Fold these 3 entries.
Entry 1:
Amino acid sequence: MQLDVKEVEELAKTLYIRALKLLPPDIKRGFERLVATETDATGRSVLDTMVKNVAVAERTNNLLCQDTGIPIYNVVIGRNVAFDGTAMKEAIRRGCERATREHPLRSSVVHPITRKNEQTSCGIGVPLINVDFDTREETVAIEMIPKGSGSENGSFLQMLIPADGVKAVKRYVIDRVIECGGRVCPPTIVGVGIGGTSDLCMHNAKVAATRPLGTTCSDPEGAKIEAELSEAVNALGIGPQGLGGCSTSFRVHVEVAATHITMNPVAVNIQCHSARRALATITPGGIDFQ
Amino acid sequence: MSTHHTLEMPIDEAQVRALRVGDTVTLEKRLFGIRDATLIHMFDHDRRTHMDLKGHAVIHTAPNVRKAASHPTNEPRYEPLCIGTTTSMRMERFTKPLMQREGVRIIIGKGGMGPATLDAFREMGGAYLAIVGGAAALETTWIDEIEDVDLDDLHPESLWQFRIHGFGPLLVTMDSHGNSLHRDVNESAAAKRAAVLASIGANE
């Protein structure tokens, strides 16, 4: 299969808008679970408003949240796909700009020093484009994540040492969730990276935060910590929007990477309740939106 | 016992001091949008606005808008597309000057604000109303039009003037009597910390 850059550009545009308007089904199911289990009256009323908002966004064909986020594209290329990588990345960037201009969307991206907004949702290094490979025949998957800033500001890295143990890793996560309180728009998905280098650890925290609900860490030790922390964060009573309740997080997700004998890094990256993602695959048969 | 208040904006000091944490509020008529860059320019760079914010409510926002094709006065004119709320805590150091210089009475946002804001509310008479962050599609249905815009070189972090109807109900979470639901929830989470850490074998 030859990857058509025009098709990639259109898809990059469409996926940005779809992601902002349609909440993924796993997150909707996550809300159903929390609504059924929340015991605090304020917490329940906040959850009801969030569920109502999802319906209003669908009915009015509007964005779920005003924050158009930092655009992230995850591209996974399968086997027997011919592509021009540079042209593909340029096409994604053009699609992202076009979504912003043509919808129009609020450009939330500025130069970090001058704070100038180019009104394109693009800038130096943005959109983020992560490219990976897998074994699917003649398939290219593109996932678009508009990462909201309220929760992205809930990002932390600590280079713990081996003597601190896994105990300190767990304590670090609990303390960051307490520190963030309602600022990160709970109920959240708490993404945790354990191990790796500093950058891999942080990247894994983002992978964890943006993983669908219902998936578990592929490493059994990581999965154990996931289960423990998921229960623990909801015992803190922070609740939806930090106004009290037991629905602080949908789930804590952990991703693990091997690390150095001297190191014990932990990273936290939080995803808000508007946990937006849009995914499509390109095959010789056409485009399929998931 | 919590009370519901319908407030026709603007309001005076007595009206804002009548609000108590746990009460609910619906706003009518007018609301102003403000956020990071707006406040940095207004107070750190001493930029002034032609808008009168006295007795009004501001919401921490930067909307998605569509620029209207043409306007007789060539002033920028926008239609609202999606208007929501951003995290308030970043704006903490601006509450006092916003109330002192501009006479703002109510701040609407998400996540709550800190001790400097609570002090300013107590001294001058103000309140914080929590809106549900991320519920922008719903919030947009309470906004009739964008009446005016200023400091638009900061777009989308301009100073926005919205005409609203039935904006709420919103929960009073910080009042002028020293109460803050945000502080209470945070303190209660901190108090539960040791037991939570012990439950996962992570105690100090």
Note: Residues 5-19+64-148+276-289 of chain A form a domain with the 60s Ribosomal Protein L30; Chain: A; fold (CATH 3.30.1330).
Entry 2:
Amino acid sequence: MADPTALLLREQYNNPVQQRESSTFGMWIFIMTEVMLFGGLFLAFTVYRMKFPESFIVGSGDMSITLGAINTAVLIGSSFTMALAVFSAETGNRRMLSIFLLATMFLGLVFLGIKFTEYYQHYQEHRAPGIWFDYRGPNPGQVEMFFLLYFLMTGLHAVHMFVGEGILTAMLIRNRAGSFSAEYHTPVELTGLYWHFVDIIWVFLFAIFYVEGLHLHKL
Amino acid sequence: MTPAVEVPVERNYLDAETGIKSWLLTLDHKRIGLLYVASVTVLFFIGGFFALLMRLQLLEPYGWLVGPQIYNKLFTMHGIIMVWFFLIPSIPNTLGNFFIPMMIGAKDVAFPKLNLLSWYIFNLAAFVALYSMIRGGVDTGWTFYTPFSTGFSTTYVSTAALGVFISGFSSILTGLNFIVTIHRMRAPGLTWFRLPLFIWSHYATSIILVLATPVLAITLLMVMVERIFRVGIYDPALGGDPVLFQHMFWFYSHPAVYIMVLPAMAVISELVPTFSRKPLFGYKFVAFASIAIAAIGFLVWGHHMFVAGQSMYSALAFSFLSYLVAVPSAIKVFNWSATMYKGSISWDTPMLYAIGFIGLFTVGGMTGLFLAALGIDVHVTDTYFVIAHFHYIMVGGTVMGYLGGMHYFWPKITGKLYWEPLAKLSALIVFLGFNLTFFPQFILGYMGMPRRYAAYAPEFHMLNVLSTAGASILGVGYVLPLLYLTWSWRYGKPAGPNPWRATGLEWQTPSPPPRENFEETPVVTRGPYDFGGLREELRLG
């Protein structure tokens, strides 16, 4: 019988080690570009947070800390199931891999569900920026800036979550087709890297948007 | 006489497969490089056409060809096309794509599918940008400065910005691919300090591509959001800060200058040793100079904002850092010159371009020092002095490097030789036309002619006529290579594997190379510019 891993070696590589290292390295560089992408938004947030500290705290007071905290827990939980999925792949346990991929997808969808519930609440409270925005307190423009950055940054994060769901689906299909084994499971590992990265971004978003106005919350 | 036994002709990458599908779905880095050549050539001539119209307009002091609104659109579209759709991809995506794997003895780049994807993304981006132009164009200047771009301009800003935004993904994929390829795909024995300087320079370029491009993407995304949803991120009327836009834009766009010029330096570092028959002087210094340019290049963006209300102290720091980035650039110029010193120089076409590059880049670099000086910068800000300066870098540097590289590598790419006398003549035409176009602009800028105006005071007439005359000569110099290179592909004499007797791995395989580049993975035992070793090998056969 031919070596099954040889079939998965793409023609530009000399050996499976080179292939795995290249893919992993490529993923890390991609994550670096993502850090720079979000970095631009974090810079804009920092600049305006320095410029309008009071209004940003007022804006943060409109966040639901309960939903935010639940979502943070859900996402960290999904990182845990993702780590278990990678572990299952490493040990060649295809059944558990499928289960943990599904669990990660489920938790990701819960997160998105809660996130869009929050968006809808903000929209109903006239906190969505642009023509929908209506705030009767002092400095409405500054509060709108807070919400604009909130929608942009959590929105970009949510886009990454949707992409992640797509990748997880692809991994699930490939796993059911029997593509992964203890010898070859690089794509699962890379999916894990991506998923953890998106989770870490959320931890920062939670801190800057929700926790800041905590003392204003009615809890 | 017919040979008794039919010798099997080696299937090179051009003949391995035929038909339009074999090109559009190819994963071969060499073919993808040629696809990029086709794309950027078309875009170069579109961008050049806009430049030609601008120069024609400025033939008369009060303009005669178009009105000021159209003129605003002309320089904007010229800038957008040339910067993002020619200069950024010009050398890395064509020659880099073709030769990085060959120079490191690899079969392909690390991610061939991403490589092809990046070409499609690039074309989509170009299509979107061109669409914005067909619909009526953009008048913000290529810099999209806010609040004009977000609050006032009534032209197709979002569409054009979307085009640039999309092109960023193509840049990122290319940069990522190159970094991984250079790290992981090198042939056995090819250590970091045996790499050709072409590779070092492209490595530095790739680092900038992956770190700077995402920031441009997010900046332009915010411009689009601000325009479409009428919200204020940069608009001062809504509490935004237009200077934040400038910071973020130049955080990408200054390093982008090095994305353009480092690959040209990569080409020059190959040409100079080959045509001087000497190893490059101070190899490690040139290698690390590339990395230093990439690193310091990230810290100088504020010199675009000396008159934008920046604090005096940050202006001082940015001025100092801008002087600092000139040091590694100067190291390169000195080392190229030292390589030629007492070398056995042959005046082939690529070498003419290389020498042209060194001269023009030096002028561009030195005038960059003028602009880094705070006092002088205030005097010449937004004048033709700035225009002349960055055209000496971008056109005198990058385009000369691109043409030099195309002539140098053409025999390897096509397996054919072009007609040398005509090539030499057109190199000369490019050099003369370029200087006649842009040198008068230094004087115009110094005398105070502002950039981006459709009309000018009559005392600037003479120098503008000279500049326009130069542009028409330059145009001829650019059309000629297009004609004779295309002609040679079909009718040129066979080049043989190593027509320049160069040392790189890419010359040790047939021209055109086979699909997998080398029949077997080469094992590297010597440094990159070891002409003695090459002579020895040739003598032993």
Note: The mean pLDDT of chain A is 91.
Entry 3:
Amino acid sequence: MPITLATHAMGTRFELVLAGDDPHRLNAVGEAALCEIKDCHRRFNLFDPGSWLNTLNRRAGHESVVLDGLTFELLEVCRRVHRDSQGAFDVTVAPLMHAWGFHGPTGPESFDAIHEAGSRVGMEHLKFDGDAKTLRFTRPGMELDLGAIAKGFAIDLAIELLREHGITCALLHGGTSTAAAIGSPPGEDGWRVRVRTGADDSAKDQDITITLKDAALSVSAPPGRVIESGGETLGHILDPRTARPVTRGSFAAAVGASACLTDAWATALLVLGHTPDTMPQTLRAILPATQAPPSYKPAITEHALS
Amino acid sequence: MTETDRRTFLLQTGGALAAMAIAPGLAFASEVTLQGEISVAIIGMGRQGRAIAGELQKIKGVKVAAICDVDPGRLRSGARRVADVTTYETHSQLLDQAKDVSAVFIATPTHTHLAVFKDALAAGKHVYCEAPLASTVEDCRAIASAARGAPTICAAGLLGRSNPVYQLARTFFRSDSVRDLVAMRAQSNDKTTWRNPSSDPAREKALNWRLDPTLSTGLAGELGTHQFDVFHYYRGTYPTSIQGHGSIRLHDDGREVYDTVAATLSFADGSILQYAATLGNSHDGTHEVFFGSNAAIKLAWTHGWLFKEADAPTQGWEVYANRQQFHNEEGITLIADATQLASQGKLKSGVGLPNPPLYYGLGDFLKSVTEGTPVATSIEEGARATIVGILADKAIRTGETVTVDPALLGGA
């Protein structure tokens, strides 16, 4: 009999489905897995002034900050995806997110302010010492925003814990944008996850069903947090190379073994609008054949347990 | 005078002065700063040990040089969360070999605290011991006795006394804002199993000591102790008798430790504290309330509010106070350093603590060690709160009225 647990973290709802023989044990293991997610939320939440991420952001402009193992692992992945996506994925994008008004109620700032914020963006301006495991910003006013990857990283940690505790059948998703599966439901070849690709239920025939077994899936799309600018509705994904919100793509998805990687690459693919040769071979990209309307909100909408 | 002018006038004169008078000497609650550096160790890397590591990481000048846990999985997990740390399997190894460490944080199971505490003192370390301090009254007294004779700094991990919101609210409580105390209430609601899984079935029982009736102090001891100390801190007095009840309402998995409890703690002046806790529902979380004839103060660890009665006098500072609506009542948020925030025009942007209460508790201990500031929560007070928690658990388990012998607390 499967059990379901859920928690609120990272501004969304995480849901975990577990199957096994002992529901009491499943509950305890599931809770521990969700604790990993809450722990990541406390560490990497840009909107919590008391988070480790904000401490790091405050200090790294003045000194080399020694990183713990988890933060180091996460930033290593960020660096690889940044390199392989030719800068389309960039966790230093926070100053631009502020300037465009995605982090507050005030709306976009002036062109000059956005331009100035852009000068503080770019992972090439991070001084990352892999031996000493330290980080320093080489430009004043830089800031990390891990919003495009922390959810996947948290899901990976939770999945790792579930596996360590012998779980062989589970599905975990965060905010219906990243999901990861262990094994498959009894009698199935994997967890069937439907990705809605139309604006609403009337376009169900455009949906994509992906079967996940020991794999992760992430989807990314410009809508979500939106702002109005110059008569345009702009989504919250920024192209760090142009300092402007992405408008060209309607959605992008990535499938792979690691939720951290699929989460980051879903954003990178949306920014790029195509699959680069440098994307790891272990990942599969899913991009739309045609441009979808602006109201479109792709999401993982359901999963099935037989 | 326009409304804006009036506010500005009050802010710059009477209002600001009133707030300063009410909250004297409160430091800005954003960041703990230490003079110099200190090398520390964490003993026990379960959830609390990891939480301690996470908060210490944010305090500049603190180096977590060593950690230990008898569970290999927890030790691995802990090491991943601390930069450049040496790991040990036992606290004895750590205390023997980590010579550069001057202070230790004890976050092992409650019933093991006494042995670790004594060993840490014998090794000449400053000691922060998580609360409850022990699972028996005898162990509490032994810990208090050991701390009394120690040349090093000892502190209990009860967080109300070092919490800036609680310190501020206490000045309101003591300045007649509440007036005559009529009742007190505390609750701790959290939907959780309280069960720890283990990848090694042989370790499962040891990890689930909180569900072992021979070791656990139940919800009243493990959770209530922290809240009971808040009432002791505010009032300087302790309960004289306790009645209680409990049952298993949700987690019927073979456990004997109740998942839902209620207790009534009576004080010598006739006042009563109603305590309730459950592991079956999360509504309204953990909080304490002081009900007075003029106002009620509600404290929720990262936030605090003052709910005024209609006939309570208006004070100058209220004009710029931040308010939150709760159903049909309005609560004035109690913000540490309200005067400074108001002068910066930031009063409405911050209504709670910027950091978890644990951060301030750890910070206070480290300041005591490095700068000689007074200990916020002494082992003596920690022992008193723990004993009240243990006796509340006893009342809940037996269903009998338990008398709190003042000599027991006085000698703690």
Note: The radius of gyration of chain B is 22 Å.
